[in-house]
Specification:
The chain is 21% helix and 37% strand. It is an alpha+beta fold. It is globular and about 45 Å long. The two termini are 23 Å apart.
Length: 261
């Protein structure tokens, strides 16, 4: 496990591609999260939040979960205004962009307080934002490898963009919080917050309970990417994209290659 974690962390540091998973791929989520935790420790990078994603229905029973999670490093988070443009750096193995709604926490969530429910976490949220997940991996083909290799490589997260806060989001129907993604001028996805089962608070409850089982707490100010709203849209360096949340944000994105750090 240490060798796998070191290989993943080093490939990310050097922004180099691994032709395949560096060692035996984890067979279950417990092994995958153990590699993830070790990779975070080896990297030495601060964690500023977490991403949550759905597991495809055919795999849920076998894996015993309907969602997965991965850390978001602080140095990969970008803040965005209501409009403008940003560069989006991606790793060479796999890259995609996803329109998501992003929670920012108002208070810590202590693992000892688990189990958490969506209702119990309503007062833990400071704000909900329009945002984008930069999904990216150093492992070639990891976007098609399944949940366990994805979890092991930090949930295939390469960064997050946090846009403007959505006022009065608690009183809005999920289907009314819309999103749209275009890549190189072509519309590739349209959707809404209704794509996330149970809404943002359900994603947060899943994450808080998962982390509590691993002895990890959430901090005030942490961000949570709650899940894609209109699809996972593959991109590569040199392409352009636009993430639109009507009435909230319209952001132009230029995809670039990650640089070594």
């Amino acid at each position: 496990m240490d060798q796998v974690a070191k290989a993943l962390a080093e490939a990310r540091r050097k922004a180099t591609e691994l032709a395949s998973f560096p060692g035996e791929a984890p067979a279950d989520l417990a092994a995958a999260y153990a590699i993830q935790d070790r990779t975070v420790a080896v990297s030495g990078r601060a964690v500023a939040g977490w991403k949550v994603a759905m597991i495809l229905p055919p795999l849920r029973d076998a894996l015993g979960a309907d969602r997965l999670a991965g850390p978001i490093f602080a140095d990969s988070v970008q803040e965005a205004g209501a409009e403008g443009g940003l560069q989006v750096p991606v790793y060479p193995g796999f890259a995609a962009l996803e329109c998501e709604f992003v929670l920012r926490l108002a208070r810590p969530l202590d693992p000892s307080a688990a189990p958490f429910s969506p209702d119990s976490l309503a007062d833990a949220v400071a704000s909900l934002h329009a945002g984008v997940e930069i999904a990216s991996s150093v492992v070639a083909g990891n976007g098609d490898a399944g949940p366990c290799p994805t979890v092991a490589d930090l949930g295939n997260n390469g960064g997050a963009i946090v846009g403007p806060a959505i006022q009065g989001w608690q009183d809005k129907a999920p289907a009314d919080m819309l999103s749209r993604m275009t890549v190189d001028g072509a519309t590739v996805g349209e959707g809404s917050a209704a794509a996330v089962p149970g809404g943002p608070l359900a994603a947060l409850a899943f994450l808080a309970n998962l982390l509590a089982g691993r002895g990890i707490g959430l901090k005030a100010g942490d961000i949570v990417l709650t899940g894609q709203t209109n699809g996972v849209h593959r991109v590569k360096a040199g392409q352009s994209a636009r993430a639109e949340f009507p009435g909230v944000m319209a952001l132009d994105l230029t995809v670039t290659a990650k640089r070594p750090v």
